[in-house]
């Protein structure tokens, strides 16, 4: 129906099963977000997010909530890129990700890129809560426009708290209406931007040193046992290569 808006929240909970593995007592997709358990290794549970229909469209509000209990290990990916598209409903689309990782737990959040299509408007919010001994690998990739088109307007905010204290809080805006987003001080003409955040208590003993990873990528230590790699690139392939290099550099 014209003007229809989607409201959907997918939820999953991972818990240690007491036998060295990870159980998924809650695995509930909703609306355009289907969740599928896939094969994991070494006691790790793996979940793939599958887009059941086109989303997010203008006016939609969709969310993913994931909770990783003490000692559990979870890896979340996606079957394909997420494409923000213009919709018939007025107003921007909203996409919210809420991740909670308990003590001794590990979460790898490694979805395929988000593509900001021409004419779309998306507000993306990611909130991550980490316990003191939680481990996290978080990858975020954004492609500004499909092949041969200009991007939509994309605003993304990432906030991370560890042991109840702020670890990272940043907001980025790209596309029409975002001042200077394509200038030399921001993207410099590139159309792919991404980051990789690694939090691991092991880095208390061996802190990360800042370094360049490529011509347009850098690895920066954060307060606490964490490091953030940021990169811009001409396309999704070169962006992924830069962030994969960050994984190797962090160890």
Quick rundown:
With 251 residues, the chain is mainly beta.
Total strand segments: 18
Specify Rg, calculated over alpha carbons: 18 Å
Strand content: over 45%
> Kindly, what is the distance between the CA atoms of the first and last residues, rounded to a whole number of angstroms?
50 Å
Low-confidence stretches: none
- Number of discrete helical segments: 1
The main pleated sheet reads as:
11 strands, mixed
Give the fraction of residues assigned to helices.
Answer: under 10%
Secondary-structure-based class equals mainly beta
Shape: globular
Give me the strand/helix succession.
Answer: EEEEEEEEEEEEEEEEEEH
Write the layout of secondary structure elements.
Layout: E1 7-16, E2 22-28, E3 33-38, E4 45-51, E5 61-68, E6 73-78, E7 82-84, E8 93-101, E9 106-109, E10 114-116, E11 121-130, E12 135-144, E13 153-162, E14 165-174, E15 192-199, E16 211-214, E17 217-222, E18 226-233, H1 236-250
Parallel strand pairs: 1-5, 4-6, 5-8, 6-9, 7-10, 8-11, 9-12, 10-12, 11-13
Antiparallel strand pairs: 1-2, 3-4, 12-15, 13-14, 15-18, 16-17, 17-18
């Amino acid at each position: 129906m014209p003007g229809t808006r989607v409201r959907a929240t997918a939820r999953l909970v991972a818990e240690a099963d007491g036998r060295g593995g990870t159980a998924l007592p809650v695995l509930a997709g909703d609306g355009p977000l289907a969740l599928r358990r896939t094969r994991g290794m070494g006691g790790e549970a793996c979940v793939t997010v599958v887009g059941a229909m086109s989303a997010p469209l203008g006016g939609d509000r969709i969310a993913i909530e994931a909770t990783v209990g003490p000692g559990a290990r979870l890896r979340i990916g996606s079957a394909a890129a997420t494409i923000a598209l213009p919709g018939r409903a007025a107003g921007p689309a909203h996409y919210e990700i809420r991740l909670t990782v308990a003590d001794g737990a590990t979460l790898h959040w490694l979805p395929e890129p988000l593509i900001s299509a021409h004419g779309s408007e998306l507000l993306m919010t990611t909130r991550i809560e980490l316990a003191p001994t939680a481990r996290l690998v978080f990858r975020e990739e954004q492609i500004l426009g499909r092949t041969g088109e200009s991007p939509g307007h994309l605003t993304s905010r990432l906030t991370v708290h560890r042991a109840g204290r702020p670890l990272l809080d940043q907001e980025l805006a790209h596309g029409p209406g975002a001042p200077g987003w394509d200038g030399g001080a921001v993207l410099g003409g590139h159309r792919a931007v991404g980051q990789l955040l690694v939090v691991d208590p092991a880095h208390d003993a061996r802190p990360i040193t800042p370094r360049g990873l490529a011509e347009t990528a850098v690895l920066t230590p954060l307060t606490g046992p964490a490091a953030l790699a940021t990169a811009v690139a001409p396309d999704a392939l070169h962006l992924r290569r830069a962030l994969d290099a960050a994984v190797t550099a962090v160890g």
